[in-house]
C-alpha cells in the first residue's frame, strides 16, 4: 500500500545541525521515506563549505538563486551553477560549495537516503 503524500510548507523548514559558517542547511523532507531526502542550502556572500562528501549518497543540486560553484577534483575543478542549472555529485565525491559573489546563493539538494549525510574533511584527500 502506498504511503501518504507529505508537504512541508516553507514556514516549517528549519535550519539543520552541523552547519559550516556562512552555509545554512535547512531540512525540507527528512525521515519521510527510505530512499530520498531534500534540503535547502543557502550560501552567504563570500563563503564556502568545508571540503566534504556525502558518504554512500548520490546528490542532485538544483540552483534556485544566485551564482555558486561546486569545487571538486582536489580543488582543481570549479563548475559554476546559475539559476536553473543542475549538478550531480556522486557518492563519496569530495567537493566544496562556494559563493564568491555579493549575493546569497540558494540550492535545492536531493540525496539518495532517508537523512542527509555530510562528512566534513580536514582537507582534500582526507576521507
Description:
This protein has 127 residues and is mostly beta strands. Helix content is 0%, strand content 43%. The protein has strands at 14-15, 23-29, 37-43, 47-48, 52-53, 59-65, 68-72, 77-81, 86-89, 95-99, 105-111, 119-120. The strands form three sheets. The chain has a six-stranded antiparallel β-sheet with strand order 1-2-3-11-6-9, with no helix packed on it. The chain is globular, with a radius of gyration of 14 Å. The N and C termini lie far apart (40 Å). The model has no long low-confidence stretch (mean pLDDT 93).
Number of helices: 0
* Secondary structure category: mainly beta
- Termini separation comes to 40 Å
Helix content: under 10%
What is the beta-strand fraction?
35-45%
Element order, helices and strands?
A: EEEEEEEEEEEE
Chain-averaged pLDDT: 93
Largest sheet: 6 strands, antiparallel
Number of E strands: 12
Radius of gyration: 14 Å
What shape does the CA trace take? globular
Unreliable parts: none
Adjacency order of strands in the biggest sheet: 1-2-3-11-6-9
Defining key terms:
single chain; 127 residues; mainly beta; six-stranded antiparallel β-sheet; 12 strands; globular
Write the layout of secondary structure elements.
Elements: E1 14-15, E2 23-29, E3 37-43, E4 47-48, E5 52-53, E6 59-65, E7 68-72, E8 77-81, E9 86-89, E10 95-99, E11 105-111, E12 119-120
Antiparallel strand pairs: 1-2, 2-3, 3-11, 4-10, 5-12, 6-9, 6-11, 7-8, 7-10
Amino acid at each position: 500500500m502506498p504511503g501518504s503524500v507529505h508537504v512541508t510548507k516553507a514556514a516549517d523548514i528549519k535550519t539543520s545541525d552541523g552547519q559550516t559558517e556562512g552555509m545554512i542547511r535547512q531540512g525540507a523532507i527528512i525521515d519521510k521515506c527510505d530512499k530520498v531526502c531534500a534540503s535547502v542550502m543557502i550560501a552567504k556572500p563570500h563563503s564556502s563549505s568545508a571540503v566534504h562528501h556525502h558518504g554512500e549518497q548520490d546528490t542532485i543540486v538544483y540552483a534556485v538563486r544566485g551564482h555558486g560553484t561546486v569545487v571538486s577534483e582536489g580543488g582543481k575543478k570549479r563548475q559554476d551553477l546559475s539559476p536553473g542549472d543542475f549538478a550531480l555529485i556522486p557518492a563519496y565525491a569530495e567537493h566544496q560549495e562556494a559563493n564568491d559573489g555579493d549575493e546569497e546563493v540558494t540550492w535545492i539538494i536531493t540525496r539518495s537516503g532517508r537523512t542527509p549525510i555530510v562528512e566534513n574533511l580536514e582537507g582534500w584527500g582526507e576521507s
